[in-house]
Amino acid sequence: MAGITELTAHLPTVLVLAGHDPTGGAGLVADSEAVAACGGWALTLPTALTVQNCRDVTAVTSVAADDLRAMAAALEEFEIAAIKIGLIPDGAVLDAVVDILRRRPGVPVVMDPVLRAGGGSDLSTAELIDAICRHLLPCVDILTPNRQELARLAGAEFADDTERAVRLMSLGCQALLVTGTDYPAARVPSDRVEHTLHAPQTSRQWSWPRLAGRFHGSGCTLASALAARLAAGESLVRACEQAQAFTWQALSRGWQPGHDQRLPRRLWQLPARPAFLATDAAAPRQ
């Protein structure tokens, strides 16, 4: 038992504030799996309960803001090494999230801006997006939008991704990892996906083979993996590289329970049926 205690005492801890998805493809379950698979420990605070399947989201119920604050306060004993933010369902939850972040100064914050469900349902409003840009982005170290989310956050007056990224950084966000999975830029081959890191001193691009099909929870997976790698002390570029590689592997092994979006297998390293006892003889005696 001493060995187990020694190992768990040093797990990088990631505080996750996100919605709950009952499919496990996205939301807090996805976040927890990604953090664990990348060597961390997830502390989960639900911002909303959702009614959804692998096709679309049909309802979102916000968690009471005071309950969210109370859950966060109960975790004061943990030394949090990174924070990941997902779905922000309304202004009250937004205010609570900002309050929670201000109680953890200096902790790297990763935000996956969940503005629309994979099936197309809108999960935000123009007013809420404006409030997120004004109040939450100044607290964010790295934002992980897809190209559509980037355009929606920055506003229609900006012509390309670089201008949009610069706009969001001018609002206080420190860096962006913009993903091209939703639709490729004109110069990117149709069989590739390009992700771009925008930061004050760094600009990097990565190209990955485009996987067939549609996926549920890819953004949650990437952002939580990135948070876990930052929590472990990796540099921003290295953490971005590792999070992308992990996400691509999880998506490439994804499974399809029905005829709609595929679900990432974030724990593919585990055997299908792990044996916890080597032999029957090792089982406890009754």
Automatic annotation (TrEMBL):
<dbReference type="GO" id="GO:0009229">
    <property type="term" value="P:thiamine diphosphate biosynthetic process"/>
</dbReference>
<dbReference type="Pfam" id="PF08543">
    <property type="entry name" value="Phos_pyr_kin"/>
</dbReference>
<protein>
    <recommendedName>
        <fullName>hydroxymethylpyrimidine kinase</fullName>
        <ecNumber>2.7.1.49</ecNumber>
    </recommendedName>
</protein>
<keyword id="KW-0418">Kinase</keyword>
<feature type="domain" description="Pyridoxamine kinase/Phosphomethylpyrimidine kinase">
    <location>
        <begin position="21"/>
        <end position="260"/>
    </location>
</feature>
<dbReference type="InterPro" id="IPR004399">
    <property type="entry name" value="HMP/HMP-P_kinase_dom"/>
</dbReference>
<dbReference type="GO" id="GO:0008972">
    <property type="term" value="F:phosphomethylpyrimidine kinase activity"/>
</dbReference>
<dbReference type="GO" id="GO:0005829">
    <property type="term" value="C:cytosol"/>
</dbReference>
<dbReference type="InterPro" id="IPR013749">
    <property type="entry name" value="PM/HMP-P_kinase-1"/>
</dbReference>
<dbReference type="InterPro" id="IPR029056">
    <property type="entry name" value="Ribokinase-like"/>
</dbReference>
<keyword id="KW-0808">Transferase</keyword>
<dbReference type="GO" id="GO:0008902">
    <property type="term" value="F:hydroxymethylpyrimidine kinase activity"/>
</dbReference>
<dbReference type="GO" id="GO:0009228">
    <property type="term" value="P:thiamine biosynthetic process"/>
</dbReference>
<comment type="pathway">
    <text>Cofactor biosynthesis; thiamine diphosphate biosynthesis.</text>
</comment>
